[in-house]
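Researcher: Here's the sequence for the chain we discussed earlier.
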Amino acid sequence: MSVERTASVAWQGEVKTGSGTVTMESSGAFGPYGVSFPSRAGEPEGQTSPEELIAAAHASCFSMALSSALGSNGTAPEHLDVSATVTFSMDGGPHISEVVLRVRGQVPGVDAETFRSFAEQAKDGCPVSKLVAGNVRVSLDAALA
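Model: Thanks. This is the structure I predict for it:
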C-alpha cells in the first residue's frame, strides 16, 4: 500500500524579498499560509517556514509511532504531549542542523524506563526520522507526565 500527499507553494520574487503561500492540497486542512525567507531566518511574523512544517510533520509522525508501539504492548497512552523543534542554521550555508523531539506521556502500567525505551524506538522508527537519518541529528527528551 502506498499513499501520496501533496502540498503546493505559489512563490513571487527573489528569495530574500519575495514571498509565497503554502497550501495543503491533499487534505485542504489548512492554508494558504504565508512563507518568506525573512520569516524563515528571523521572526515568523505570522508566517510559516519549511522548518515549522517539518516540525509539525515530525511531531505528528512520532506521536503516531509511539502510540502504536505502546498500544501493541497493551499499554495504550492516555495522553501524549509531543513537540518537535527544528533548527535552521546559516553557518556553513543554509541547512537544518537539528531536530529535538520532546514528549510527556500519561501511560498507565508503564514505568519511566519502559516509556523512554518505547520513545527511543518510536524516534528511530518514525518515517520522518528515517527521512532525516544520517543528515540531521535527532535527539529525544522523553518522560512520563
